[in-house]
Amino acid sequence: MNEAQQLRERLDAYRILHRTIQLLNTNTARDLEATLQAVVDGVVESVGFQVAVVNLALDGMLEVAAVAGPDEVKKELDGQVGSRAAWEELLASAEPWGTLRYFSLHQTNLGDVPSWTPSADPSDDPDAWHPEDCLVAPLYSPEGELVGVLSVDLPVDGRKPGSLQRELLEMLAAQAAIAIDNARLHAALVQSIDDLRASAESFRLAFENAPSGMAMRSLRPDDRGKLMRVNAALGELLGYPTPDLLELGLRAIVHPDDRAMLTDEADHGRVELRMRRRDGTHLWVSANSSIVHDADGQPDFQLIHVHDVSDRRARELKLAHRAAHDPLTGLPNRSELRTRLYAMLGSSVPVVVLFCDLDDFKQVNDTYGHDAGDAVLVEIGQRLRMHVRENDTVARLGGDEFVIVLRDLDTTDARDLTERLAEAVSRPVNYEGHVITVSASIGLGASAPASTVDQLLREADKAMYRAKGDRIRPLATRPDRRSRTPLAH
């Protein structure tokens, strides 16, 4: 599989995962049973397994609470229970695959942990999925409590999952753990709110002792939007003393770009937004809202549950960055380049594209080795980046080809920049005692009112070949010169 195919596979997987998490979030803070079923259905629909099971932690036991897969699996597993002790022993002895745990039934003492084995003949392929193979994802709440275990079986392709499939399962499991914990917490809090009509003290204790951040935001006409109460967990999460939080209010600590999501009308709604901590840093949180009505049926206050989701957001951003950037140089890749060009050409700002190709770069690899060639490419990418402005784009298309996109720069200044870039590229590169010198041919393409991305890239590509022809024409009889084929877009 080439680099472009791998990139497309990662992007497709990321889009599927994003849609699945969105679907899962529609069940967050609602019915626990619906949330559990959304978890297993999401795994089967998006991660590439035919069977998914959630074992829910209840009073020292784990009960099979949701199953997605063939009817025979549901009939055999639905409602079965296993002790927490047996599960914890199993998780501790299984082989770690990141946050996942892998084991084989014929090598493991399951105790009373529920199990199911498909009726299939094992393959001789060492990478094939064996009928007795098991892969599980422990589900922990943000406070580290085991709230359940997600089990998967029967990979669609019949093979042990690779790194991308495992990563997707890990991310979905992390989101599922939060969703399950939220649903459980919400159910407990709704019950507490009902009890409040009989005992205000009962609700106060439940609110204050909740392990997650919580806030009561008034919906009454006379003080709408004002914080009525916050718990200690929210103050610890954001670093504010309770009086300061009550005085500031939620809108004051929500990032300005995210304030529109903090509405008074949200009932059983979930949003992810940034909140400012007392030290000035911003924290990504999941805010789940429920509206509590008074005895007359009028909105009384908004109950908001706040969870820290910074780690998960960081993982998603990292995956998105990897999908849009060249792994060697860290520069934007072909797909990201085209995305940015589409956006620029949609405005009235002029755009200039420089197509940069290193001359006879194959000789570097042949003479000094591919590690040296990679080091040269990284250095050239850094030099190109240093000689352009912050809002300009330097991308690597692959091999020894780079593209520079210049926004709002006339062609005269762009040609002057081209000479400076060629000079910067030609400076020697020191690598493990070797002094390596390369040169570059650079072509220029300028946007017109009706230019397309392909036209602009093609114009710069052709200009680069003309520059290369001018450079090598006096040496055209040399037998080691490469013949070049125009770039296909």
CATH topology heading of the largest domain: Beta-Lactamase
Weakly predicted, low-confidence segments: 473-489
Mean pLDDT: 84
Strand order of the largest sheet: 3-2-1-7-6-5-4
Anisotropy-based shape: globular
Q: Describe the largest sheet.
A: 7 strands, antiparallel
Keywords summarizing the entry:
single chain; 489 residues; alpha+beta; Beta-Lactamase; Alpha-Beta Plaits; 3 domains; five-stranded antiparallel beta sheet; 15 helices; 18 strands; globular; disordered C terminus
Molecular structure report:
The structure is a single chain. This protein is of the alpha+beta class and 489 residues long. It has 15 helices and 18 strands. It has helices at residues 3-25, 32-46, 71-77, 84-93, 163-196, 200-209, 232-238, 242-248, 250-253, 310-324, 334-345, 362-368, 370-386, 411-426, 453-472, and strands spanning 49-58, 61-68, 81-83, 95-97, 100-104, 133-140, 146-155, 213-218, 227-230, 269-276, 282-293, 299-308, 351-358, 393-398, 401-407, 429-431, 434-436, 440-446. The protein has a 7-stranded antiparallel β-sheet, with helices on both faces. A hairpin with a 5-residue loop joins strand 10 (269-276) and strand 11 (282-293). It is globular. The two termini are 19 Å apart.
